[in-house]
Every structure is written in C-alpha cells, then in structure tokens.
Design brief:
The complex is a heterodimer of chains A (320) and B (251).
Chain A lengths: L1 H5 L4 H4 L10 H30 L4 H6 L4 H34 L5 H8 L1 H4 L2 H12 L6 H4 L10 H8 L8 H27 L2 H8 L4 H30 L2 H7 L9 H10 L5 H39 L7
Helix pairs in contact in A: 3-16, 5-11, 5-13, 5-15, 8-11, 8-14, 11-13, 11-14, 12-13, 13-16, 15-16
Chain B lengths: L2 E10 L2 E11 L4 E5 L6 H9 L10 E4 L2 E2 L5 H4 L2 E3 L11 H10 L9 H14 L15 H14 L4 E5 L7 H18 L2 E6 L2 H7 L2 E6 L2 E6 L1 H6 L4 H6 L4 H5 L4
Parallel strand pairs in B: 3-8, 3-9, 6-7, 7-8
Antiparallel strand pairs in B: 1-2, 1-4, 4-5, 9-10
Helix pairs in contact in B: 3-4, 3-5, 4-5
The chains are: A mainly alpha (320), B alpha/beta (251).
C-alpha cells in the first residue's frame, strides 16, 4: 500500500510551487501588481463609471431614460438587427464550416483566411463598402434608385420605390453592415471543432440508412452545439454593440435609423438631455456584455469538453 | 447475400488506390482482406459499403445480382463497423443501437416497443445487457466495439463490413472478440468481409483470405492454400514464409 500511495502525488505535493518556473518574490509581486492595475484602470473602472453615471441623478431618472421615444426605438432597432443578422450568420457560418471542413477544393485555404477579413478590417471600411455598392452613387445605385440617372426605370427600382424601401441610410443597410461585421464569429467557432471531430460519425449514420437531413439534425448538430452556441453568443454581442460600420450606413435619423450605440453617442452629445440618459443606455449594453461573458465561458467549457470527447473516442491524446 | 466486385479502379490524384480489382464473395462466407497499410484494403471495403466510389465507369459493385454501384451507402443496407467504433458520443448505448431503426421511413419503421425489444436482444447478444443508459465514453474499448457491432446488426444487414475491427484493442480483448465473431458468424451465416493487417487474425477467423498490395489482389484462397502455395514473392514475404516455400516462386 505504501508503494502505491507514494506513486501518486499527494494533495500537499500538488500545492508545492514548481521550482523550475518560480521567480523571486518581488518579480512576481510587480508582475501581478501591473496586471491588477491594468485591469482596474482599463476594464473595471470604466464599468463602474458607467453604472455610477447612469444612476447619478437617481433611480427615477435612470428609468425615465427608457421612456424616451427615440431611445425605445433605438432598442427596438438593435433587437431587430440582431434578430436578422444572427440567424443569417448562423446559416452562413454552418454552411461555411461544413464546406470548409468536409470538402477539399481549390481555394479552400484562401476562403478560410477571408472569413477573418471582417475582424481585421476597420468597421468603418466595412460600412463604406456597402455605401459604395448600394448607395445612390454606388455600383448598384442605378438599379436600386429611381432618381439615379441612367436606368431610371429598372423593375427593381420601381418595386423598391413603390414600397418605399431604401437600403443605405435605412434599416436594410444597417442589417447588411452588421451581418458583415459579425460574419466570422460562428464559422470561426465551428471550423476547428468540426476539423477535430472528423466525419466518422456521419459516415456511420450514413451506413445505418440516415439521409443528409437526419445526419445533420441527429448527429452533426448535437456534436457541435456548444461550439455553435459559443459563436452565437459572440455574434449577438457584436451585432448589438457594433458602432463603426452601422454609423456609416445609418444616416443617424432619430427614431428611424439609430441603433443603441448610435443613440448613446447622440444622447451624450445632446446637452439638453440629462447626462445620465446616455449612461443608462450604455449600462444596458454593459450588462449585455457581462451576461455574454458568463454564457461564453460556460459554452466554451462545454465546447472544450466536446472536443475532448471527440479526441477520447479516437483514443488520441487531447490536442489543444 | 453474395457480393461481387467487378474490375474496380480508383485513383487518388495519380496514385491508384485500387487497380482493376475483382472479387466474388459467396453468401455466408467470412472473408479477410489482408495487406500492409496503404495497400488499398480499406478503400476496397469502403467502396463495397458505398462510402467511397470507384472512378466513373471503372467497375461495378453487385449485391446478389443487383448492381448497386451508383447507390449511396444509406441505400445499400450494409452493416459497417469502423476501426475507432464511431459511436454517437452524445447518445446512450441503447440509442446508439436503435439509431438505424429510428431513421427508417415511417412506413418501414418498427413500433417503439419493437425497437426497444430489438435493442435489448442485441445488447444481450453482445453481452452488454444492463449498459443501456450509459454513454460511450463510460465504456472500455472492447465494450464500445461490441456496441458498434450491435448497432450495425440492428438494421438486419445482408452483409457485415468490418474495418480493422479489433485494431484498437489490446491483445487479450482482441482474441476474445475474434473468437466471438467466428462463433457468431457460424451461427447466423451472415456474409462478412473484414479488413486486417494482422495475418494471425486473418488466418484464425476467415474462411478465405484476400491478399492485397499496391491496390491489386495478389492472391485469394483458404488460409491453408495461401500458406502452402503462395502465389508470388509479395505473399511469401508478407506472410514471412520459410525459404523452401518461396524457393519455387518466380521473382
């Protein structure tokens, strides 16, 4: 028994510091101090300020900020935008992850690189792209706007005009820009997971007589659901919080094309409104961020377990 | 059910995985596809299952006289057991076994009570009664492999295809499962083809052995025939036969 016990690390031994990587105490203290100072200054303090300012004129004023017609409309528009952009990107993301991990084709690695583009490019550029394409002076302008010169009476233009639909400086433009900015999140979450999991389970389902639809719902989706949820959460947070790209295509029409982040800016610059109104709205976005963080951590933990399960079922060591 | 492979060729890039392969498996036979890794034996098995396809107009696959070359795996009704089991990790053992029954068209799908009874019988047959509610991750390798067998058998396949079925198991479990497979096959006479790189396994279990190298069939015969009269140098060397057996073979 003594031999067996000594071959396992005891609790005391596990808590001993690992000598090889330990530093003098003051180095440790300085490093940890710097990290704490940084966190406090750049992450924690701003969060405190937002809530402090939001409630600076009392709880009544805080809640009255949400009775403002334009603010309510901004919240509605943000929810609507997310409700369109997130499902769209879920479908795009699933299609992209599926084709990039299941098929081998020319240009595959180029596509994997391009998926990240919206993360690298400035959101303002992302917004400008849509102005250049869909704007009245843009590539598609002549087809979309009846008053733009040459093809003055294209069928699409007449249809859009008859139904009073605009793209740029209107809701469709905001949805497009948001979709562009949030495109990578779901695909990026799924690609490594699906690559690690491989296609053996799908092949097994196929040999058992399942068709493509059944395989997706019964085998693939349960395998990737936590990775998908992780992507959904990040995608949603970004969709609701996006400022730059939306700002370019929005046109800032109060009560029509202002989302929450844009409305915050307007309220902040508006000296006739109480300052706390901007911060009240900002606190809603901050709470969204905190909830996102918690959900994200949970989904990430479950997704890692799914990845570990996939590795374990192949009797392979877990690759991280 | 008998299976015929007729002049199958399949190339990956330029390298041929299968080069004009023909094979006839009689109904109720237990056949081993034996060869070194990269010889094309797994590709041949997957082509028979409909998981891989031959190059266009490069051969036919025939099940009991019916040409199934163009049919996808999900219409071929062949039981396939994967090397690493490929169990559905998120489903219980009984749901894994029931999967093939649950995805059947409504008109063909058995009643829930029938499914439950079939699952119970199958788990009993593979000595896993009492494990219904467990998840695959809670089972040992040998147990998982038996679940994979039960799952493949649940759809009452006319042919059983096994890809290195014992490859990932330790020696003792491997021997047990081997014996179990042979007994099982003697009892229900299900046409079975299995892939292995282990000659001992092939000779102990199979009625006939098919030796494959470089995408070509080198020899087909009973274990005795192959050992007594190896067809060529590859067979003699792969089976590590004594010098006198190889002496008579032209290089």
């Amino acid at each position: 028994m003594a031999g067996a016990a000594s071959s396992f690390p005891t609790a005391a031994r596990l808590h001993q510091p690992i000598r090889a990587t330990s530093e003098p105490w003051y180095v440790k203290a300085i490093l940890i101090g710097v990290v704490f100072a940084f966190f406090t200054l750049f992450l924690f303090l701003p969060l405190v300020v937002i809530f402090q300012e939001a409630f600076s004129n009392g709880i009544a004023v805080f809640f009255s900020a949400f009775t403002d017609e334009y603010t309510l409309h901004a919240i509605q528009l943000t929810l609507l935008t997310a409700a369109i952009a997130v499902p769209l990107n879920t479908i795009f993301g699933l299609c992209a992850a599926w084709s990039l991990t299941r098929f081998d084709f020319r240009g595959r690695s180029l596509l994997i690189t391009l998926i990240d583009l919206p993360l690298w490019v400035s959101p303002v550029v992302g917004g400008l792209i849509y102005v250049l394409i869909f704007g009245a002076k843009g590539w598609l302008g002549p087809w979309l706007y009846p008053d733009a010169d040459m093809l003055a009476h294209s069928a699409i233009a007449r249809f859009l005009d008859a139904h009073n639909v605009r793209i740029i400086f209107a809701v469709p433009g905001i949805v497009l820009a948001t979709t562009f900015v949030t495109f990578p999140f779901i695909a990026r979450g799924l690609i490594p997971l699906m690559q690690a999991q491989g296609t053996k389970e799908e092949e097994a389902a196929l040999s058992l007589g399942a068709n493509g639809w059944q395989i997706f719902w019964r085998v693939t989706l349960p395998k990737i659901k936590w990775g998908l949820l992780y992507g959904l959460i990040l995608c949603n947070a970004r969709a609701m919080g996006e400022f730059g790209a939306v700002s370019v295509v929005s046109g800032h029409i109060r009560g029509q094309t202002n989302t929450m982040p844009l409305q915050i800016e307007i309220l902040y610059n508006d000296y006739s409104a109480p300052r706390s109104a901007a911060f009240a709205l900002a606190s809603v976005l901050s709470i969204l961020a905190l909830v996102t963080l918690i959900l994200k951590t949970f989904a990430e933990w479950r997704a890692e377990r799914q990845l570990a399960d996939a590795a374990a079922s192949l009797d392979l060591p877990i690759k991280r | 059910m008998s299976i015929e492979v007729r002049d199958i060729t399949k190339k990956y890039a330029r390298f041929p995985a299968l080069d004009n392969v023909s094979l006839k498996v009689e109904s109720g036979e237990l056949i081993a596809l034996l060869g070194p890794s990269g010889s094309g034996k797994t590709t041949l098995l997957r082509t028979i299952a409909g998981l891989d396809f031959p190059d266009s107009n490069a051969g036919r696959i025939i099940y009991d006289g019916t040409d199934v070359t163009e049919l996808s795996a999900y219409k071929r009704h062949a039981g396939f057991v994967f090397q690493h089991y490929a169990l559905f990790n998120h489903m219980s053992i009984s749901e894994n076994v029931a999967f093939g029954l649950r995805v059947m068209k409504r008109s063909k799908r058995p009643a829930e009570s029938v499914i439950q009874e079939r699952v119970r019988q199958l788990l009993e047959a593979v000595q896993l009664a009492g494990y219904e509610k467990r998840l695959p991750s809670q089972l040992s390798g040998g147990q998982r492999q038996r679940v994979a067998f039960a799952r493949a058998l649940a759809i009452e396949p006319q042919v059983l295809l096994l890809d290195e079925p014992f490859g990932a198991l330790d020696a003792k479990v491997r021997k047990e499962l081997r014996r179990w497979l042979r007994e099982f096959q003697d009892r229900i006479k299900l046409t079975t083809i299995f892939v292995t790189h282990d000659q001992e396994e092939a000779f102990e279990v199979a009625d006939r052995v098919v030796l494959i190298d470089k995408g070509r069939i080198q020899q087909i015969g009973t274990p005795d025939e192959v050992r007594k009269t190896p067809a060529n140098r590859f067979v003699a060397e792969f089976l590590d036969l004594p010098a006198e057996a190889t002496a008579s073979i032209p290089a």
